[in-house]
Amino acid sequence: MERKIIIAHVGDRIAAVLSEEGKIVEIHYSPQNEPYALGSIYVGKVRQILPNINAAFIEIGDKNECYYSTEEKYSPIFTSKAGKKPFCVGDELLVQIQKEAVRTKKPVVTGNLNFTGRYAVLTSGNLTVGVSSKISKPKREELLAKAESYGGRGYGFILRTNAADVPWETVAAELEKLEEEYFHIRRIAGTRTCFSCLKEAPKPYISMLRDIYQSGLAEIVAQSGTLYEETRDFLAKEQPDDLRLLRCYTDEQYPLSKCYSMEHVTEEALRERVWLKSGSYLVIQETEAMHVIDVNSGRCMKKKKEFLAMNLEAAKEAARQIRLRNLSGIIMIDFINMGTDTEKQELLAYFQHELNKDRNPGNVIDMTKLQIVEVTRKKVKKTLKESLYE
């Protein structure tokens, strides 16, 4: 599968776009300068503990209090203790922003610090060594055997999908680099004042460069100026092998955003109705509790025995829309009713296959008696709509 990354200014925001086989599947908007970005590490202070919900609120600066679950099984790294209890008001500790603030919900922070590279993630709390489940079993076992020597060092590693496509020496070099970064943060943490930012997360479009699957990446197009320069500098330092893929877009008469129809794709992704080639369509709506997708036969004149084909087409587009709109939490999809269990299982398997193309794949839970498919998807970033209007 051919992939392409496009980075451009759209109005007062920066858009990072992922295209697969010539079709946009992800589009992420971010402001020019975003404080308290996802992945940043701070020295926070415990302001309030709520035992009834097993949570605490931790300030990371400017009276910005974040939600912290006290049920975390990982021991946080304290820089100053205010009492003898495991968790006390006034404690200062290292926290990392795990989820962005959404509407009335505060940002979520964790004491399990993650240091993310292209091939691996170092975790301060989870001390095990793991390998991405998207890697084939034989390769996964091979990588796990090579990574075992990194266990028992007071931290853990997760080898990412990209680790399967490069020599082990490349992965090992990154593991050493992440280890060095982790210990550097630990060394300086005790010397920094409360609310200090010890590690500033990379900008969202830089994160996409780091997180995208290496396989099939054919081109990186960045708008001339700051976006191109920052992209070039990052690749030169962190991913020099990808510098050959970078292209600077310099046509000032025809913006890069229009060249790839970013505004048009965004406009379509904000509509409730999505038409399919067969003449059927999806209706995508948001409620307070969940997202709901209804598959409607519309102008499609297929017979009942062809409903499976219609549902498979809808499943493919629903998976793309979930990814494009960055929908998360509980998602319910009302497909067209089918008669046999075999057809139902084929639909569920195909839908999961399409969801797995995502870096943050949804999980098909089951189909209810009313033939409504239940899906969950981890919420990390804002939805497309929230990133534009909130």
From TrEMBL:
Its cofactor is Mg(2+). Keywords: Hydrolase, Magnesium, Metal-binding, RNA-binding. Gene3D superfamilies: Nucleic acid-binding proteins (2.40.50.140). InterPro entries: NA-bd_OB-fold, RNA-bd_AU-1/RNase_E/G, RNase_E/G. Residues 115-380 form the RNA-binding protein AU-1/Ribonuclease E/G domain. Coiled coil: none annotated. This is Ribonuclease E/G.
